[in-house]
Amino acid sequence: MALMPSRGSRLLAAAVAMALFAVTPPTYAATQPSARTQVTAADAQPTATGGSHTITLITGDKVVAGPAGTVSVLGADGEPVAAHVTTVGTDTYVYPESALPYVSAGVLDRRLFNITLLLADGYDDAHVDHLPLIVTYKAAVQLRAQRVPEGATTVRTLDSIQGAAVAADRSADFWESLTAGGAAAPQARAQDTAPSFAAGVAKVWLDGKVKADLSDTVSQIGAPEVWAGGDTGEGVDVAVLDTGVDATHPDLAGRIEDSASFVPGEDVTDRHGHGTHVASTVAGTGAASDGKEKGVAPGADLHIGKVLSDSGQGQDSWIIAGMEWAARDEHAKVVSMSLGTDAPADGTDPMSQAVNALTAETGALFVIAAGNSGQSGDRTIGSPGAADAALTVGAVDGADRLADFSSRGPRLVDDALKPEITAPGVDVLAARSQYTPGEGPYRTMSGTSMATPHVAGAAALLAAEHPGWTGAQLKDALVSTAKLTPDYGPYEAGSGRVDVAAATKGTVFATASAYLGIHSPSKEPDAKPERTLTYTNMGDAPVTLDLSFDDSDLPDDMWSLSASQVVVPAHGQSTVTLSADLSRAEPQFSYSGQVLATGADGTVLAHTVVGVSTGEKPSRLVVTATGRDGEPMPGLVNMMREGDPAGLYYSFVTTSGYVNALLPNGTYSVWMWGQVEGTHGPNSRGMALMSAPMVVLDGDATLKLDASTAHEIKAVTPKEAADAAVRVDYHRTLGDTASITDSYTLSTTFDSVWTNSTQKPAKGELSVTARWRKIQPLLSVENGRQSYDDLWVLPGGGLLPEGTSDVDAVFAGGGSAADYAGIDAKGKVAVIRYGDTDKQVPAAVAAGVKLLLIVNDEAGRLREPLRRTPLTVASLTKDAGEQLIARLKEGPVRLHVTSHPATEYLYDFVRTWRGAVPKDVTYKPKQDDLARVEVDFRNDPADEVDEYRYDLSPGLSAKVGATMLSRAQGHRTDWVTADARWMSEAEVPRESIQYGGSVSYRAGSTAHEEWFGPIQRPRINDAVGLPRRTGDAVQVEVPGWGDSGANHAGLAVPGQLAQSLALYQGDTLVTQTEGGFLYADVPPGRRPYTLVATTERDAAVYPLSLRTTTRWRFTSATADPERAAQLPLIQLDYGVDTDAGGSADRSARLTLTPSHLPGGPDSGRIRSAGLDVSYDDGATWHRQRLDRTRDGWVTRLHAPADAEHLTLRATAEDTYGNSVEQTVVRAIGLK
């Protein structure tokens, strides 16, 4: 849940952009390369380690977000998984294919795949060892039986919503149990029905996070007038669900009847301050101010439920449990909840359901904050304030002006009337918890959180006057007697500002609000929706009320009442009918206003908020999908509506190839990912992207997506190469707010991707991007003219030695030990049909098989990781494999086998088609059209290195790429698309990772990339983040192990290598931290600073760069609080030729190149540089003569004959006085 103590909404993670490929596991040295998924999450990971973040999804798949904005997606088995990645606005969703049917069926919460949200809310594996969920059941019997799917435990029962809070383990067990071993969705698709969960589970939600959202303000709402009559709320039970309470505060002493904490591991004590402030606003006695700073109902009895942690956040299930406790166990008449979600809600979520259910069951009144997202515009009411039964509270200042932060209606989806009322919420003075910063007994806070307890206190005063009233009656009375605020409409400020004096002294009340729903004038031209308004008279004499509409945006003659005057009997009720003639309404408009009930003297005695929407009712869009073979095509249909940031709809197409969707009218972009026949016969699999960029829906319609006319998106390489990874992005904008990038990475089971041609859309942007990594084939098998080009090397196995050979093949049936009896398979190729590979591989090894070919038994390539084995194992598709088996049954077959265990070359291609998708979607560059990159992997003791290259597509906030497992200290030639933006990185699994900056290559050019070469030391680049100051806050990321590659920065896996940072202002230590990330508040003004970075690693593992110390001295001034200013640090780069092990000649030429970080402030020029060297690890030093050249400062070494290593100490200074000094112990070896 979201705490709302101030105008600022929570700090969200930066846009997590797009994901793509899955990483190759660190198995055998020659495993098949694969793809890696990336997400931009720079601001989501300011940790002390500067390392990556792992999020285990509900499916058991793992998403790993790195500090450079990359994300890897791996299955529970550690293997790559196909993932749909959708970026909507600033939020990115990563959907494994297994989850999509349940998301589209509406039984699985989309937030469970919102990587932006999960990172921002601390739901990564480092912060929680389980995934918090709320499970609702189809029937109460499942709830009572506590049939929790395997892999999860029940945290608490939430029977108000027929559900439970559960904690799911970080494994695939829960998902397997929930989906009946993965069979539920395929079975539903085969039966042409929507999928459902096993174990009686109706829906699974993320147990999301919620944040917590006086003297003059109490007088503002008329409370002193009520006190003067003797009503202080005495005897009324008010529950405050918040961050707890400081029970020792003088204003709350003796006022707390009971308390309970629903936050695991925390007592009810308020160490945040929000709950104490709220509780004292409700019922504080003012004892700490001699009675001056009283709460609204100082005589009420408080029941404190701690549902938000000391950090001000809580989970949905904590809040629901607190609501059940307050309403049922404590019998609270009023429940005050100054909390809510940041995201807008439609009132159907678990918390809203609980509010409605508990209100109906107990009669309690839930008073809930509207939220603090008003600056984001309309439709910003969060949960649980979106609940029908909630009395939802906005905020005004001391002059009844609406606070700019106060969330506005209408409610999401149905345009219902919210909020209902406002109260003072700006600069509210109330009790300060002694456990929070500050002095004195009181503090000032702003937010709808502060407005809410004013209304809760008012409800307590009113309940004391009318102890038999239900929560609904209290709500009607407070809302219908609120002070009118005519400058604001009901969707902004409800009925007006609460006036407790009018409510308690009044005798006439009306229905609080009357919403007539959404109606379509075109489909219901004669529609006249109605609602009944009820007027209640608590007085001893009848009252005549004149009824009229206020001067709002209600059109003349559109609204009518069954009577313009009504007589309400003493202690009785009268009703009138409100109706709206929608033939007089504008289409696509939400109307709101108030019905005023005035007495004989013209005074407004009561008023009712009314509203109706003419948003069109949904139309039916029927989508029929046909595959390349003319048969129905299953898959996922996406529909995005123009101008609607929330208007993204999914539907899963079953094997019928048909989907029937109800959608709001509008202009849509529709696209579908569907499974089709691939390029290798009927049993091969391809993926088709079929799109209709402009679909105008103004009534029921049919859309045909026919893949029989689709064209293959393919890349043709100058030299033979096989697909290692393929990704396709669909990017579309419609209007100012509807924007999406949908990225799909082909699973290894697919052999091709297809798309249809389109016209350029009349509105918005359209682009399709294809990304390929194509490699020299690891293994090739031929038989005469028959080439088995769809052969796939299974990960976990080895590869044959480099070279070519002709090998006899044998057919060994099912591949069991018995199948090899009587067959001479030693040194041969064994061909078998797929079975239990855990038994088939050992049987082949025992038989002496040289190469094992497994024929898949279903469509597509076989995707199955092996237990580690030295045997080379590859799969054949069903069609090709059965043809080979048939030939083997006819007679001897000799296969020509070629192996390349170390890839000597590869192609990284990217191609974007903008505006329209043509028929020809083939990318066929010539050799001269490409750029050549010579890549070396050096100076690392590991046997293997994972290397990645990302394409940075213009206009897309994405970092996407492909993985290649390479030998350390090896060489490879890469051919890449020219003029595209690229970013690379290389990783030693479980040890360290190097990040390269963005770069573009010219056609025909040759560049060099070196990984893990000396001299490794702290180095900063834009891939990880540049040091900056915002206001008087400094944030620095210093990667500790940058190598000699151009613009590289290197990070260690947490726990593997030691690093620390310290920041000094002058000689005073500001802060220090372990790891490569530092954040600190610094004194205002311009002052001198020193940043010190130290690193150290084990000499037994890493012979070079054992220890480093870097001191940056610089001057920094207060920066713009809204715009970060980069710090003027100087970077040091080194150039020296070394061998593969990192050793240089004793008279080697060494270049020192100082430079300012890119994009920094004007710091003049580098005016001097110095270099000292040591050949005894720093015991003695020798000053080197430096000659300045175009490349930097150059010197030549003169190492003694017995020296084994060079240690260096380099310095540089600019004309503004900024400087750097860097010491690297054993920077290089000497030969």
TrEMBL record:
Gene3D superfamilies registered for this protein in UniProt: 3.50.30.30, Peptidase S8/S53 domain
Protein name listed in UniProt: Peptidase
Disordered, as annotated region: 271-296
Gene Ontology biological process terms from the UniProt entry: proteolysis
SUPFAM superfamilies: PA domain, Subtilisin-like
Keywords tagged on the record: Hydrolase, Protease, Serine protease, Signal
Domain Peptidase S8/S53: 233-485
Annotated source species: Planotetraspora phitsanulokensis
MF annotations from Gene Ontology: serine-type endopeptidase activity
Family statement drawn from the similarity comment of this UniProt entry: Belongs to the peptidase S8 family.
Positions of the catalytic residues: 242, 274, 449
InterPro entries referenced in this protein's UniProt entry, alphabetically: PA_dom_sf, Peptidase_S8/S53_dom, Peptidase_S8/S53_dom_sf, Peptidase_S8/S53_subtilisin, Peptidase_S8_Asp-AS, Peptidase_S8_His-AS, Peptidase_S8_Ser-AS, Peptidase_S8_subtilisin-rel
Signal peptide annotation: 1-29
